[in-house]
Specification:
InterPro entries: CHP02117 (IPR011727)
Strand content: 15-25%
Order of helices and strands: HEEHEHHEHEHEEHH
Radius of gyration: 17 Å
Protein name: DUF2459 domain-containing protein
Distance between the termini: 36 Å
Structural class: alpha+beta
Pfam families: DUF2459
Strand order of the largest sheet: 5-1-2-3-4-7-6
Organism: Geomonas diazotrophica
Number of helices: 8
Helix content: 25-40%
Length: 231
């Protein structure tokens, strides 16, 4: 299933643009280690990293949104999980991505938006067959990650977000975001930084593709299982 807000880009566009970059920037987190490891398994908190073609997003259970992210519930249907993504404003919200939209997103410095999707099911039930990884964070790691997610939204002086385009059933909503999108800071670079804020070992400089995000989180999960507390 491809949900609204996630765009599949023609492969010929991506090949033209990213082959030179991929040869140089592999998105490797070598030398980085886990931070904020939980002291016990009872302290573990689950998040999910989900790849949707070009984008990779981060999903949290509804009960873990807390005061940092609970405001999104006002703009969306009730959900069991909420997935967060960041991207170029025009490209991300476009009903159809044209070559001109794609080229502006790639070669200009552009405003950004946050995308939040409310899932009535578990991530596995919502996106059966999708490339996804469940990661375990400590309470401290999850708090840092939520702070990073909140800091990605723009708020008015009264601490209210700026809601933009949304689904007719409240299944998703875009919001004005902090930061500018450019070729060296893509949606996947943002995802890597959010995960790193929660203690996950990630390359936050050169992770340009969702494949780079997923490769690193799979390696991080494998390392976490080695470090995981025994009880």
């Amino acid at each position: 299933m491809v949900k609204p807000g996630y765009r599949w880009v023609p492969k010929k566009w991506l090949v033209l643009l990213f082959v030179p970059l991929v040869l140089l920037l592999t998105g490797c987190a070598a030398g980085k280690t886990w931070k904020y490891l939980p002291a016990t398994r009872g302290e573990e908190r689950s998040i999910y990293v989900i790849a949707h073609g070009w984008h990779a997003g981060v999903a949290l259970p509804a009960e873990e949104l807390g005061e940092e992210l609970g405001f999104v519930k006002q703009y969306l249907r009730p959900g069991r999980y909420y997935e967060f993504g960041w991207g170029e404003a025009e490209f991300y919200q476009a009903d159809k991505v044209t070559p001109s939209i794609f080229l502006r997103a790639v070669f200009w410095r552009n405003p950004s938006v946050m995308h939040v999707f409310s899932m009535p099911a578990t991530p596995a039930g919502q996106f059966g067959g999708a490339d996804m990884v469940e990661l375990k964070l400590s309470e401290a790691g999850l708090k840092h990650l939520k702070d990073s997610l909140r800091a990605s939204f723009r708020f008015d002086p009264a601490h209210r977000p700026y809601p933009l385009k949304g689904g007719t059933l409240g299944e998703y909503r875009f919001f004005r975001a902090q930061g500018e999108y450019l070729i060296t800071h893509t949606c996947n670079t943002w995802t890597a930084k959010v995960l790193a804020s929660g203690g996950v070992p990630m390359d936050t400089a050169f992770t340009l593709r969702s494949a780079g995000v997923m490769r690193q989180v799979k390696a991080a999960r494998k390392e976490y299982l080695r470090l995981r507390p025994s009880e």
